[in-house]
Inverse folding.
């Protein structure tokens, strides 16, 4: 049986924050028949979260102000199994994971696409600050017009199937304009919360989360300097990240930083600021947005964290899945588990997890 797709309908992921609300409003203003879809995720200490207690009230108020219908789907079990368990597993490997990057293709956009298919809806949309264009026969992602708010980094694992039906209305909107629109349509100031990293922690301490849900990863070991001298004991590698200064627990004349985590020997290696950084990294498997890599080796602009500036690097293939990135100068805070994301100007090429 052939199903008719309504090309004027769009399903918008509504988080309860200002960006997705304004995205829905802009699409309705542009003439689309908009439906909001709120995905109810697993949250740490959900019963104590003011946002969670009022979740349906918030979504209902947003939908009334914009004038759209909405649905709420409870995917807390799926989110726990695919995202929170992944976070715990990666912590157990001693790395610093970025579950938000894999949540977009595996959970949020994937479920929007499924809902669209089941209900014969032509398009999906999110409130991400990024732009989508079509170049020839492929879809591409560009940085947002407002570079300070750009969220293209978080979309580095999307592919052509994800992009085919995706609309990104916030890509050309300045953040100050977003607030202005929100006030114009009467969104209460209390609803204008920003999106946050590790949304399932609801702003609470990730260290307490680890103690409660992943105590098995908290294996104490030696803190050593760059020469291998034992200086003390750490509380578990999951409590530390590359470049960290506070909370190490070792006193010294000069400030000390986490330089590396020796996962095999369960050692935390610390040093002074001059010991930080290196001029290369390995990343992979790399997802190339176009579906295939550019001709390599090739110089690209590289981001090693969502909040980092791009830095020029020579990207060379190591094998079918891994690339090596060589920087001209030492780069601080290269962190296994985070993503190296590749750009050419504003064009997002793709990204892969930092292995070493």
């Amino acid at each position: 049986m052939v199903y008719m797709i309504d090309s004027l309908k769009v399903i918008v992921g509504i988080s309860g924050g200002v960006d997705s609300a304004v995205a829905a409003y802009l699409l309705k203003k542009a003439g689309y028949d908009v439906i909001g879809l709120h995905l109810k995720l697993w949250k740490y200490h959900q019963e104590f979260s003011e946002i969670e207690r009022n979740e349906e009230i918030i979504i209902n108020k947003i939908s009334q102000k914009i004038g759209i219908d909405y649905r709420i789907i409870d995917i807390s079990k799926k989110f726990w199994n695919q995202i929170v368990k992944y976070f715990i597993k990666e912590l157990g490997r001693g790395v610093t994971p970025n579950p938000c990057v894999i949540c977009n293709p595996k959970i949020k956009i994937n479920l929007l696409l499924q809902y669209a298919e089941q209900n014969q809806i032509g398009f999906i949309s999110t409130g991400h600050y990024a732009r989508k264009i079509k170049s020839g026969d492929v879809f591409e992602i560009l940085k947002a017009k407002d570079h300070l708010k750009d969220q293209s980094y978080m979309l580095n694992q999307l592919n052509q199937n994800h992009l085919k039906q995706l609309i990104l209305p916030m890509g050309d909107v300045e953040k100050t304009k977003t607030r202005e629109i929100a006030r114009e349509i009467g969104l209460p100031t209390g609803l204008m919360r920003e999106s946050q990293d590790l949304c399932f922690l609801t702003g609470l301490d990730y260290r307490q989360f680890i103690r409660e849900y992943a105590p098995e990863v908290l294996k104490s070991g030696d803190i050593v300097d760059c020469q291998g001298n034992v200086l003390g004991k750490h509380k578990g590698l999951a409590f530390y990240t590359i470049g960290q200064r506070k909370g190490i627990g070792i006193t010294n004349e000069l400030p000390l930083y986490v330089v590396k985590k020796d996962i095999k020997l369960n050692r935390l290696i610390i040093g002074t600021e001059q010991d930080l950084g290196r001029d290369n990294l390995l990343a992979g498997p790399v997802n190339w947005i176009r579906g295939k890599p550019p001709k390599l080796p090739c110089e690209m602009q590289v981001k090693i964290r969502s909040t980092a500036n791009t830095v020029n690097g020579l990207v060379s293939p190591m094998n079918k899945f891994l690339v090596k990135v060589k920087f001209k100068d030492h780069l601080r805070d290269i962190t296994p588990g985070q993503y190296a994301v590749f750009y050419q100007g504003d064009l997002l090429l793709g990204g892969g997890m930092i292995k070493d």
